[in-house]
């Protein structure tokens, strides 16, 4: 190891750091550490990193391949084994499974939850888990409890299965990640840990993460929620993603959840489910940016500044006659964000519409949608009914979600690490 590597590193601070190869090219980022936790007396050996590489595949990087760790990056040597990481029964994910574990410190009155773990290099050059950061329960809702750092051997409860293990500190880690990255972490958690984390997430965050998970994970997670909460989470999802998920549920479960959802949200989902899945109608979102004929360019720009709006939906506004909820009045046209930025803010958005842009019909096949977006160099296109009323917009990311193979997130099925 290089002399630049610090003698001790706290694991939670490693999560998300970029991993570089010997040429200085980034090859992935740190998602977790794998340790052989067998004893509360002997410091566990750190076996390696779980790294996320292109395509959101997670691979195993042995610590013997790690040449340097500093405050902002990790360096490796040699070629990485790109087979998908599969956790073995004898291995523990330090972030995924150890954070929030309930522990005590014999000989003291300290009881609390693990909020970080420190590792350092032993004399034989192995990395070991050597320190445990513990937070005691707070005395009030707003007041955090005291924090302490102990030697590994001083702490009791690190190897026991903890039925009461919470998720506070892992949730704090996930909160700093993009939804796709948080989904990747949750995907690889053991079942009971995943259940605890899902229970602790708020509905909006869980909805964002669900949209990024594979179908089988979505169905499993929603199936384990009580019906009222499942309906609340589905309401927070985009209508097209909610429709895809509900379509994968058992019919009686789907009917029950639709009955518990707010009528407006349920109506959007039912309408999307009425179209064949791989058509413009089945892929579209019913909530693009819709403006009336009297809206100004300033109004349009204010709408697309919404930070919660996906980039593809923020690229185009749709000018329609009343009503402005889908299905709208007649679609007058679409205006691209680049054109709007060149117009005076007080001018009408309708004056900036693209007269050459045709709309799609909901029955358009996935190949027709792809050809349409490619022909006109679009990231989104309107979908209208036979009366010219806007039903929704189909975006390039909707298209990719349906065109890529179901297991595209794993990139490569199976595989273990050596």
TrEMBL record:
Give start-end ranges for the coiled-coil region(s): none
Q: Tell me, what is one Gene Ontology molecular-function annotation carried by this entry?
A: magnesium ion transmembrane transporter activity
Q: Which UniProt keywords apply?
A: CBS domain
Q: List residues of the CBS domain.
A: 353-411
Q: Name one Pfam family in it.
A: PRC
**This protein's record includes keyword Transmembrane:** no
Domain of life according to the entry: Bacteria
InterPro entries in alphabetical order: CBS_dom, CBS_dom_sf, Mg_transptr_MgtE_intracell_dom, MgtE_N_sf, MgtE_transporter, PRC-brl_dom, PRC_barrel-like_sf, SH3_actinomycetes
A GO cellular component entry from the record = membrane
This chain belongs to the protein called CBS domain-containing protein
Source organism of this protein record: Nocardioides euryhalodurans
